[in-house]
Amino acid sequence: MLATDYIKASDTSNGAQFGSAVSVSADGKTVAVGAPFENSEAGSVYVYLAPISGPPLAPNPLKIQAPSAQAMHFGASVALSEDGNMLVVGAPFDSNEQTGVGTYPAAPNVDAPHSGGVFVYSRVGNAWSPTPVYVKAVDAEAGDEFGTAVALKDTVLVIGAPRQDRPDTGTVLNTAPDSGAAYAYYADAGTWTLAPHILKATAVANGDLLAAP
């Protein structure tokens, strides 16, 4: 099969790693491409639309940049909803100390190095929400890399944290280094809520990196 299109960033830069993550909406009309090492590893995501006529993808994408200059690897993972109106972006090196679902602060700290975070954008018409939903693990800790992998289906969002260190879902001690975990959320009336359980492997072992891409 021959390639039908060739995509390069509209503003290429050395080391950006454009294409590290890619997602296509089910209707084929929206494509998201991550460049997690752009802007000194802050990261960016490029969103392409398929026009009614003309080339397969519009040549000038919308560029969504990381919400701060922090080297968070924004765009290391991406996921689009089936209609392309929701975009999930993982930033596994996000170091802001926060837990749960909320809003990214105007002045983020770096008190939880590489704990990781996820940003959820919504689109109405051709406009993306300027303030995304900011998702952190309820037990966010330094080095978990929450957001390394993301998956979105209907109203369910699953986020991987491959370096989470807990041996099970009920223990607070980090006695299983880099065993990994997945966090499942569901959307209820527009609000993302953590599902009843954090997901761990049935046989947890150090270094498993569960939920790594």
Supply database-style keywords.
213 residues, six-stranded antiparallel β-sheet, four-stranded antiparallel β-sheet, globular
* H-E order: EEHEEEEEEEEEEEE
Helix content: under 10%
Oligomeric form of this entry?
single chain
Shape: globular
Low-confidence stretches: none
Determine the strand fraction and express it as a percent band. Answer: 25-35%
Q: Whole-number radius of gyration?
A: 17 Å
Structural class: mainly beta
Q: Average pLDDT, to the nearest integer?
A: 89
Quickly count the helices: 1
Number of strands: 14
Major β-sheet annotation: 6 strands, antiparallel
Terminal CA distance reads 26 Å
Number of domains: 1
Describe the structure in your own words:
The chain has one helix and 14 strands, in the order ββαββββββββββββ. The protein has one helix at residues 38-41, and strands at residues 21-24, 30-35, 44-49, 62-65, 77-80, 86-91, 101-102, 117-124, 127-128, 133-135, 149-153, 156-161, 181-188, 191-199. The mean pLDDT is 89. A hairpin with a 5-residue loop joins strand 5 (77-80) and strand 6. By secondary structure, it is an all-beta fold. It has one domain.
